């Protein structure tokens, strides 16, 4: 479940290892590039954290963020 705080959608994902986390990030990167909407994220070993907000809207959560969040959830 995505949490909305500080005008951002946030979710942490945990995988079995670094390779699985990196594969997930690659799939998300392709989605983000396709929609021209790029997340803020971190990766430490098997954990990926993602924050979504729309910079053009003043760093607020918009439908663009919710759509990308749904697309991200579909590749987990």
Automatic annotation (TrEMBL):
It holds the Pfam family Pterin_4a. One of its GO terms (biological process) is tetrahydrobiopterin biosynthetic process. The keyword Lyase applies. Its EC number is 4.2.1.96. It catalyses: (4aS,6R)-4a-hydroxy-L-erythro-5,6,7,8-tetrahydrobiopterin = (6R)-L-erythro-6,7-dihydrobiopterin + H2O. It is an enzyme of class 4 (lyase). InterPro entries: PCD_sf, Pterin_deHydtase. GO terms for molecular function: 4-alpha-hydroxytetrahydrobiopterin dehydratase activity. Keywords: Lyase. Belongs to the pterin-4-alpha-carbinolamine dehydratase family. This is 4a-hydroxytetrahydrobiopterin dehydratase. It comes from Mucilaginibacter xinganensis.
């Amino acid at each position: 479940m995505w949490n909305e705080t500080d005008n951002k959608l946030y979710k942490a994902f945990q995988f079995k290892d670094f390779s699985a986390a990196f594969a997930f990030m690659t799939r998300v990167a392709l989605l983000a590039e396709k929609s021209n909407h790029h997340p803020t994220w971190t990766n430490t070993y098997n954990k990926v954290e993602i924050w979504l907000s729309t910079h053009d809207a003043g760093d607020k959560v918009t439908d663009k963020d919710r759509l990308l969040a749904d697309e991200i959830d579909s590749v987990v």
